[in-house]
Amino acid sequence: YEYTGEGDRWVKVRGRTGGIYTSARTLYATDVRGGDIHAYDRARGKWARIGGPGAEFAATDGRLYGISPDRSALYEYTGEGDRWVKVRSRTGGIYTSARTLYATDVRGGDIHAYDRARGKWARIGGPGAEFAATNERLYGISPDRSAVYEYTGKAADWIKVGGPAAHLYTSGNTLYATDPRSGDIHQYHRARTAWTRVGGPGADFAATRDRLYGASPDHSGVYAYTGTPGHWFRIGGPLAP
Length: 241
What we know:
The protein has 241 residues and is an all-beta fold. Helix content is 0%, strand content 46%. The protein has strands spanning 2-3, 10-11, 19-22, 27-30, 37-41, 46-51, 56-59, 64-67, 74-77, 84-88, 93-96, 101-104, 111-115, 120-125, 130-133, 138-141, 148-151, 158-162, 168-170, 175-178, 185-189, 194-199, 204-207, 212-215, 222-225, 232-236.
């Protein structure tokens, strides 16, 4: 379903679906059975198969990437039919900012950045419990989840920006993190290097370029954050666990 932006009205855009992934302009979805991935042409209301199953997919503004089911290789979609090109060997996980692809090693978990213009990878940090990126910044939670770090963009240099965190979520310019004890969600104000509690616990959260959404702990509703700490409004639900 696609949210209409009005109250709790949604319109169906596809049948049975396994997972969804988005770039700045394109929606992708995988089949429940088989796992093939499809791209949505919203203007025509049509779906086209663009590839087979993958262990994981992620997209930058203009590129889609996928890890093979056995994680033996990482591929980039060419944009033509179902043609993909290999850009890396064994890969544990992938993360994307607006223009950059990051990948972790299967063994060790070190994280690397992809220089697409040169077709080169560079190690930028050690392992983390989780990573997430805004348009311009990459963040990670330490392996023991005791702190949140921001990548400076220089070699393997990271700076601590927050304390314990369970999960990270990002919009185009904003980082959010959940408290591992209470589950409350907090917003990071980078200019002030400060955090603000913006809501209570949720079953899950997700953000678009400028909006934050959350599922209630009991899955009875989906809520949108108004931008005022503690204030959210219901846009739909219930939803499946």
